Amino acid sequence: MKITKAQAQANRERVVETASKLFRERGYDGVGVADLMAAAGFTHGGFYKQFRSKADLMAESAACGIAQTVALSAGVEAPEFVRYYVSREHRDTRATGCTMAALGGDAARQPEAVRATFAAGIESLLAALSPDGTASDGADPAQARARALDILAHTVGAIIMSRACPDDSPLADEILAVCRDEILASLSQSAKSPVQARVDSGGA
């Protein structure tokens, strides 16, 4: 029986969403097309009716996963984002967590289309962290972008390093706690006026 265009699109979206979770959980090389299609409830033969290659699906599923993180970040103040992102809960939910932290290392070894998707995703996350192009303390666009990039790099790095440790390792939790506290302290300091920052730091 021939399926409708609407059903075909729904099927494609189901495959993309399934791939997004499986890739985050197992890595790009840890999931074969047959296993992926089976997890989505379809046969292996249907894959190439929907996608030209696994790389195409990797790029599309990465965009899907990054969009989820952007949606969660939109309108959220930087400290709140940091507390959520650099947490044990996020660390332990790889399949539904940030695609950037789960697959950033893998993406570096993938075709340009996949890396371009990650680059676009980074830009989207930076925009979500500074939606009007300025920081909450009135910093200009260049400063706001630099601050957002610093936050994003530190939060992603903290999750990657923590996940590299055994789940029951004290170091896994130490990395999260230290990085979270340092980032939050930096945000608090940058939010103060220049005079107050000098006073707090013991300057004249």
TrEMBL record:
Residues 9-69 form the HTH tetR-type domain. The keyword Nucleus does not apply. The keyword Transcription applies. Gene3D superfamilies: Homeodomain-like (1.10.10.60), Tetracycline Repressor, domain 2 (1.10.357.10). Keywords: DNA-binding, Transcription, Transcription regulation. Residues 32-51 bind DNA. This is TetR/AcrR family transcriptional regulator. It comes from Paraburkholderia sprentiae WSM5005. The lineage of its organism: Bacteria, Pseudomonadati, Pseudomonadota, Betaproteobacteria, Burkholderiales.
